[in-house]
Amino acid sequence: HQARTTRSGYAIFDTSWDRRDRQRFRRLVDLGEALEHGDEICVAYQPQVDLTTGECTGVEALCRWEHPREGLIPPGDFMPFAEQSHLIGPLTEAVVAEALADLASWRERGFGGDVSINLSPGLFRDPDLQDRLMAHFRFANMDPQQVRFEVTESGIIEEPNRGINTLAAFRSRGSRISVDDFGTGHSSLAYLADLPVDELKIDKHFIQGLGHAWGEAIVGASVTLAGKLGLDTVAEGIETELQRDKCRELGCGRAQGFFTGRPMFRADFEAWLGLQ
Ligand code: C2E
Ligand code: MG
Ligand code: MG
Ligand code: MG
């Protein structure tokens, strides 16, 4: 057995692990260190645009890891194992802290939008989650009203009681709750009506089907369902003008995709928005 110590504790790995296990383990140790040291974890912001007015209503905060040796690592390559470890808490707090500080500075300069934060289901197991997040709001002098929390359908179902209680508590403080990747989970539609949610983010898979009968049927039905339940809709992954126009025709409220705005680091987003 070999052991490696980090400032937050120590970890042991078994020599029978294969290369992939060791790589994953190495990443986890690196991520723990990155979170202790500070500036390797950063946030990219992707605009959400009102499909009627064209106005930017807010941004989604998307986590990035600027690894000293490996370069920029996308969340798909570290979020899954962070979610299986205790690091998901500190990682989420790092994103929240940076996003709230940036939002505060943008709002001082006249930006009227909000920020969407992704929450992993495992976070709901932490009884202190609400207090921790509220401390970040106070520190940034921001109001929960300026934040949306995104959770996937399967995420809510994974931790139904604690998940729903936490989301309901934030909602009563004025935060909006979004169902991320809508249509890809396994929740029943009946269940959706009882959840404390405000909007559906229609998954990019269905948006990519626009221009085909199946895609239009699914996006159209999702928008209609959302409307009947009193929920807003955001189309995720709009890559073409045709997809944007179809979403607008089908009555979708907002768009988020490479066509309307790529994820950008702070300075690029400020330039994109025309902030002084
Ligand atoms: P998500 O929350 O569904 O975020 C949207 C993803 O779609 C982002 O990928 C974004 O870059 C990508 N995207 C946006 N527009 C387009 C488009 O037009 N075409 C295509 N093909 N893709 C588009 P990203 O940034 O790689 O994030 C992947 C996932 O990682 C996110 O999916 C989310 O589930 C997770 N994630 C990212 N940041 C965080 C975080 O801070 N906390 C948690 N828990 N999860 C996060
Ligand atoms: Mg999301
Ligand atoms: Mg999504
Ligand atoms: Mg996702």
TrEMBL record:
Domain EAL residues, every copy: 24-276
GO MF: cyclic-guanylate-specific phosphodiesterase activity
Protein known as: Diguanylate cyclase (GGDEF) domain-containing protein
Classification of source organism: Bacteria, Pseudomonadati, Pseudomonadota, Gammaproteobacteria, Thiohalospirales
Entire protein: shown range: 158 to 433 of 433
